[in-house]
TrEMBL record:
Main location class: nucleus
Keywords for this protein: Metal-binding, Nucleus, Zinc, Zinc-finger
Statement: the UniProt record of this protein carries the keyword Nucleus: yes
GO cellular component: nucleus
Compartments where located: Nucleus
NuBaID C-terminal domain boundaries: 235-325
Name of this protein: C3HC-type domain-containing protein
Occurrences of domain C3HC-type (ranges): 57-170
InterPro entries tied to this protein: NuBaID_C (IPR013909), NuBaID_N (IPR012935)
Signal sequence segment: none
GO molecular function, one term: zinc ion binding
Amino acid sequence: MIPVGAAPVKESLVSRVDKVMERWKKATAPMKAKSSHESIPHAVQAPKDVFTQCHPNNRADFQARVDTYSSLYWFAKPAELNLLTCARFGWINTGPDELACKCCHQTVLCRIDSRLGPEGARKVAEGLRGYLTTHHLDTCPWKHNPSPKSFAQVNFWTPESALAEVHATIQLGITAWQLHRLSLPIQLDDSFQADLQHHLAVPTLRDVDEVLTALVRQVDPDSRVEDADAVVVACLVLCGWKPAITTLGKTSSGGAVPLRCAQCNRTWAFPVQDAADESRAAHAHDVDGTPFPKRVKRSPSVAKLHPLHEHRWYCPWLRPAHHGDQDDHVDVPGWLQCVQAVKATLHDTSASADKAVSTLEHAAQSQGDGDKKKLPAAALAAVKALLDFT
């Protein structure tokens, strides 16, 4: 016997289940479509957060981590904790003496007590250096998968690649200097000039200036950069500095061109003066057309420039990487690799010139020998002419 009211109860349960399933389908299907950027025209893709992903072999991601370090938060750290080493293991700088991994959300406080002696500070630094690996969670992809050591080095595989980088950076420097002139008479540091002369293997400092000027003229023969400024530009380029100008013809910090090293993440202001202002001052006239009287120029103090000293002390442009981060195949700092590449071109040019001179001398000698061979025949012809005449 079927109880009264059983059928309506069964129908209500089925209908309720159907309604729930229908609501679930309506709720999930549109959500999937709305969250897909492919299904929405002109949808703006969200920027990739490089810090929450582990791409150890991506140089751009490595550079993004390096850019998080500043002298305000990461100051006077020992070689074991230089920013290049920390960035290799996936750490970014998030606060004063603080490292963070955005993959496993771990943090490391790398503060070294200033009251410690050199030996104590070294032991603390070595312990913190080990934390760069061990403090990642076991599930973190950075724990055993750091970026290559070559990322923390300046490594040109061939002299040709080093020279190509030098030429490209000089072109960038020429662009920065086209509308600018140095505001102070810049002189290269004596020790730096001596190092250049030694590594270029040229007899005098004047030869050094000629080599560097020719290097700039080779890139852009029509450049308006003066010879003295060309030497400075070449030295900055050989030492790894690039002008970081956003607007051509305008300085960003009151008459200074910011120069930046991507390796040690250091930026410093190089003083310049707008050539347009100087030209207007030179051709300034009064209302009646008479030129303004010239003012007596004060002799400014000569600024000594040592481009290598502007780097952070651990920068691979200045010295090879720390022994724990050094590749077995790279033991030469970046600036010396570039200087050696320029030196190789000098030797190639010299060898070509010597070969050309040797070829000319050989041709002249051959021509002289040919004249000597023709001399008896010419003498015999002259004798015959005399005999016929008589």
